[in-house]
Write a structure and sequence with these properties.
The protein is built from 20 helices and 16 strands. The longest helix has about 30 residues.
């Protein structure tokens, strides 16, 4: 079986992420990782918090904490939420780790040795009150386009116009509020992407045709517009320091690498963190996943569309320029936006549903299934409370949950606490087995192609097939005249429940565990269902003890909808 390296875009450290962040990278990566593990592949699923850059310092300042302490607390808070969502990371690291610092600095040294980094003088805003140069986001003022008085020096959040600090009216320091600013000359390092353009073009030409159109079109648009040399250092107190052995003067000035230079390298850094965290007696070879691994590892990245340029152009340029055989991505799965009633989720304005609050309202499986069934793959998709309730009630509560409950409850009532034997399988069961095998093959095809909405449709069809079989056979009527036929129907339905427990696990792991736990079976292997097993539907032998699990999915009521709509709003103002 293949070795699969899977990464999802690093969530930024300044606050708990919203549902759009979850569905845009981490959740689909988890669904895919779970499926691959179940089907026997070796998987390494890596992620971590992105902790450097201006917003981290500003968030720490607002919280009244040293930035290192703020980031440590925020990392733990985010990790707790992701654990609550059942994300099965092999390691969830931190871009501020010593491992990432070491690897980032070494890659920078290689780029310098190969002639792809250049020191240049630029003019930058300096705050006399703060005694420091201010990165763009450390400058706030009034937007000249819309009049918003809290626009940043890189972009106005209100009208989304891209800005330069000198565009702002009445500019002031975001640190002290001082307007005593001036423009001074300073020196920074630039990654010479222009010299790497042809190499990046060749690399994308060799790989990009296999990617979704969303990812390949964004990458090629950047190439068409021409790769520009890019500053990769900043004047910040928090970040990966410029190595003093190569750039002693810049190191003495406290320069650190730009967050978008070191953040993708954290995929490698987090893998080394994973290796270094191995328990006593276990050896983990992190380099076998990243170094000289083109022929042995398939690497898949998951991200929202705004992250695509950095992962398909800037990070590959960095790796290519290092002239070292680091593993480069094979497949980029990009997502559009999940919106809240057609408007953008916003972390800064707390607009929409955030992942910690979501878990307070309902267990993770409700959110996991809805988000993947409506993943913004081909276009943006919109979250509304009515749509959410409709999907939960129809697919999870009625189609799956009700099937499990009525089969097990009725069988226990009529035949006791063991799986009944009943008559031998007949034509109806043979047709059902063929149908289930076909639907399972479709489900596998869509998961392997990373088409998550279509995979959810196939999973829903598997659940619906069980309900159709049960309605056709009507064991509640059979039992009155032919108990053996009713027992066969119920045994077959129980085998469907066992099958659902296995194949639903990537989407709804908690419910899947409850379905598995309903049957007292020895030898749980954690494997997948083969086509022959699906046709035979003989996964749970007659006589196997079973229990009726608690209700898998409760329906969302009109009262729930009214309360949530009142709390979170049903429109974006």
């Amino acid at each position: 079986m293949a070795r699969h390296l899977i990464t999802s875009a690093l969530p930024y450290i300044n606050g708990i992420k919203h549902l759009g962040n979850m569905v845009g990278s981490m959740l689909p990566a988890d669904v895919y990782s779970r499926y691959l593990r179940r089907t026997g592949h070796e998987v390494l699923f890596i992620c971590g918090t992105d902790e450097h850059g201006t917003p981290a310092e500003l968030a720490a300042q607002e919280a009244g904490l040293p930035v290192a302490e703020f980031c440590a607390r925020a990392h733990d808070a985010q990790k707790a939420v992701y654990d609550g969502f059942g994300l099965s990371f092999d390691h969830f690291g931190r871009s501020s780790s010593p491992q990432n610092r070491e690897i980032t600095q070494e890659i920078a040294r290689e780029l310098q040795r190969n002639g792809f980094i250049e020191e240049r003088s630029i003019r930058q805003v300096y705050s006399n009150a703060d005694g420091r140069f201010l990165p763009d986001r450390y400058i706030v003022g009034t937007c000249p386009h819309c009049g918003y008085d809290k626009a940043r020096g890189d972009q106005c959040e209100n009208c989304t116009r891209v800005l330069d600090p000198t565009d702002l009216l009445e500019p002031r320091s975001a640190i002290s509020g001082s307007s005593d600013l001036e423009v001074r000359e300073t020196r920074h390092l630039f990654l010479l992407q222009s010299k790497l353009t042809e190499e990046v073009e060749r690399w994308i030409a060799a790989h990009g045709d296999d990617w979704p159109v969303l990812a390949s079109s964004i990458a090629r648009k950047w190439l068409t517009e021409g790769l520009q040399d890019r500053s990769i250092t900043r004047d910040l107190e928090w970040g990966v320091p410029v190595p003093a052995d190569v750039w002693p003067e810049l190191a003495a000035e406290g320069k650190v690498f730009y967050v978008w230079f070191d953040a993708p390298i954290e995929y490698i850094g987090a893998t080394k963190e994973w290796a270094d965290a191995a328990p006593a007696g276990e050896r983990r070879d992190w380099k076998s996943w990243w170094y000289e691994a083109d022929d042995t590892v398939r690497y898949t990245e998951f991200m929202a569309k705004d992250n695509v340029p950095f992962h398909t152009v800037m990070f590959p340029a960095t790796i290519l320029g290092s002239r070292r055989p680091w593993k480069k991505v094979d497949y980029v799965k990009a997502f559009n936006w999940l919106t809240y009633y057609g408007g953008k989720f916003s972390t800064s304005q707390q607009r929409g549903i955030f992942t910690d609050v979501a878990l307070e309202l309902l267990p993770a499986d409700y959110w996991r299934y809805f988000l993947m069934a409506h993943a913004p793959e081909s276009d943006d998709s919109s979250f509304t409370w009515d749509l959410f309730a409709s999907v939960v009630n129809k697919d999870l509560a009625d189609t799956l949950g009700n099937f499990v409950n009525r089969v097990l409850s009725f069988s226990r009532k009529r035949f006791g606490d063991d799986v009944p034997a009943g008559a031998g399988a007949g034509a109806a069961e043979e047709r059902l087995g063929e149908q289930i095998a076909g639907l399972l093959a479709e489900y596998e095809t869509q998961l392997e192609a990373l088409n998550f909405r279509k995979a959810a449709q196939a999973l829903r069809a598997l659940w619906s097939a069980g309900n159709a079989y049960l309605d056709e056979k009507a064991p509640w009527l059979q039992v009155k005249t032919d108990p053996e036929a009713a027992a066969l129907t119920l045994r077959t339905a129980m085998n469907l429940i066992r099958l659902y427990a296995v194949v639903s696990e990537p989407f709804i792991p908690t419910a899947a565990a409850a379905m598995r736990g309903a049957f007292a079976l020895d030898g749980e292997t954690g494997g997948w269902i083969t086509a022959d097993q699906a046709r035979a539907l003989d996964l749970v032998p007659a006589g196997t003890p079973f229990t009726v699990p608690p209700v898998l999915f409760a329906k969302i009521t009109d009262e729930d909808l009214a309360a949530w709509t009142a709390r979170f709003g049903a429109a974006v103002g």
